[in-house]
């Protein structure tokens, strides 16, 4: 997400970007945060860092809470010292997935596991410490790098003749580049005087289940590459055993973002096609 935002911001030119990865800034270290903000004195801080290994979080709780909760508190506290507003990315996993119609920003949270709870606790720390903040919850992120469902699907399809995919978990896939677009649009309005702090939702347009999304990924990539996979088998989420529970519905409603900022959802299908062109162009 940080890479996507940095790349898009550099092309946009409205803001001068200082992109600090883990090697340049350990956000669990408050002294390093102080030094970084003192050195650069930014107008805004955007926190794209997260520990999002959902299953591993159950076994590595200290690390998960350290990044997703405690580090957010430290960032918020130092941003407050410098009077710098903060944008923070959160997740649909703060909800339990029981609302088939989707979740608004006002719905009660009920995380099912350590990861979701750590993100919720991070949100709460930020709210308590820094009034000028934006929390943007997103869902089913995908991009051309990192560890995400699109890349895992392609890797599995290259190795296995039969693949399984969960057919009863619904959500809205969201391209990292699309979230970057939204963040920049929000930042520009805030910079130009919009007093619109608070919590918002964003995801790609159109609800789909994991099984059908898997099919769409293979169709989109099939124009560029031949795969080993011959059969895709739908299974129930309860038969897909994982360390952590997942919400069955990860649909986020985005009406508040449209009402306050005028930002519309983009179809994830278009973003997926664009991603495939970029990925395979780079492979060539």
Task: Write up what this structure looks like.
The chain has a single domain (2-148, 173-206, 250-268), classed as NAD(P)-binding Rossmann-like Domain (Rossmann fold, 3-Layer(aba) Sandwich), CATH 3.40.50. The model has no long low-confidence stretch (mean pLDDT 94). The relative contact order is 0.16. The radius of gyration is 19 Å and the shape is globular. The strands form four sheets. A four-stranded parallel beta sheet has the order 1-2-3-8, with helices on both faces. It is built from ten helices and eleven strands. With 284 residues, it is of the alpha/beta class. Helices cover 45% and strands 14% of the residues. Helix 5 (114-129) links the parallel strand 2 (86-91) and strand 3. The longest helix has 22 residues, at 61-82.
């Amino acid at each position: 997400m940080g890479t996507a935002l940095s790349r898009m911001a550099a092309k946009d030119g409205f803001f001068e970007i200082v992109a600090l990865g883990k090697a340049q800034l350990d956000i669990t270290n408050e002294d390093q945060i102080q030094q970084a903000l003192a050195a650069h004195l930014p107008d805004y801080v955007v926190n794209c860092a997260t520990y999002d290994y959902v299953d591993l979080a159950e076994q590595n709780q200290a690390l998960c809470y350290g990044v997703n909760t405690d580090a957010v508190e430290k960032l918020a506290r130092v941003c407050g010292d410098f009077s710098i507003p903060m944008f923070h990315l959160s997740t649909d996993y703060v909800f339990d997935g029981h609302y088939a119609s989707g979740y608004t920003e006002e719905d009660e949270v009920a995380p099912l596991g350590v990861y979701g709870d750590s993100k919720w606790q991070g949100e709460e720390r930020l709210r308590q410490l820094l009034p000028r903040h934006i929390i943007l919850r997103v869902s089913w992120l995908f991009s051309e790098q990192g560890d995400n469902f699109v890349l895992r699907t392609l890797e599995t399809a290259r190795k296995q003749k039969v693949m399984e995919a969960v057919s009863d978990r619904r959500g809205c896939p969201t391209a990292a580049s699309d979230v970057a677009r939204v963040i920049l649009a929000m930042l520009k309005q805030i910079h130009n005087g919009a007093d619109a702090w608070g919590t918002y939702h964003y995801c790609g347009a159109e609800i789909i289940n994991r099984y059908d999304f898997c099919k769409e990924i293979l169709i989109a990539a099939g124009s560029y590459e031949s795969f080993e996979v011959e059969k895709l088998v739908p299974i129930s989420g309860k038969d897909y055993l994982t360390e952590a529970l997942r919400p069955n519905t990860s649909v986020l409603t985005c009406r508040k973002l449209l009402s306050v900022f005028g930002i519309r959802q983009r179809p994830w299908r278009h973003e997926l096609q664009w991603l495939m062109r970029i990925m395979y162009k780079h492979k060539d």
